Amino acid sequence: MIKAKDGDFFISDWLRNVNTLEYLSAWETMNNPDFNYGEYAIIRQSSGTNTFKISVKEWVLKTNSIGITAQAGRYGGTYAHKDIAFNFGMWISPMFQLYIVKEYQRLKTIESDTLNLEWDIKRVLSKVNYHLHTDAILKHIIPKSTLPESKKGIEYAKEADLLNLALFGCTAKEWREANPAHAKNNLNVRDFASIHELNVMSNLQVFNSEMIKKDVSKTARYKILLKSAQEQLEQLKKIDILKAVRKQNSATYIEARNKTGDELEKLTSESILDKNKQALSDFNKKLKQGLNYNPKDEK
Length: 299
What we know:
By secondary structure, the protein is mostly helical. The chain contains 14 helices and 2 strands. The chain has helices at residues 11-16, 18-31, 37-46, 56-63, 82-92, 94-125, 130-140, 154-168, 172-178, 180-184, 195-213, 218-236, 261-273, 277-288, and strands at residues 68-71, 77-80. It has a two-stranded antiparallel sheet. It is elongated and about 95 Å long.
């Protein structure tokens, strides 16, 4: 870096700078538990005088620094961690400093655009094929439901939990109990799903709607959906749709289990029956009015 810059610059001149010493101390404090802060304080106190001078070797010897090192010999030289090298580059070149600032701003813009793109993709995927699924439930499950008329809307949530079990290994209720902090903010398992998982969920909605039309039992449907979800996720892992779009949160998932028909019925029912009765009543009023089912109504 020194050779690339016109003029006589020496690392010892850079080390004489009070701001340099404070920067090095801050870096060592963050990354080096064995940094000798007492010796640094002595060096810092001596800096600023006309006679003050310190070499890299002296700095390392006195402070036990690990961020910068110097070696003599044919293949020797002074080397530093990139965090420190950037600081040195900005000291010898205002233009280099400006490039660093511009590059930081560019990367932050890309990061922001990526997060917005992920939000848009998730919003679309969460709705794709949703109406196909609810339409199949309305036409083929609701008429056969043994629940009271005022509670038949529960069937929608039970089928949604069947998909949750197949893909995430837990019902909405189980996830809320495992993630109480997120549940308090009205977030659910699908809010933390990856792009691949939401893509699979969209496919499962179509698959399940077709099986519902064919009157396949809940136990059989669960086994088929579980196998399909596992196979699809395995294949999608090999495809990086958007490198920058990743799962953003590691909220608790519950390991998938093989469940019998009775267990499925119990889980999907219990996940709903503990909800507010008034909310269910409001939901059924909307259902009778011919409005589309919205998961937010479960609240």
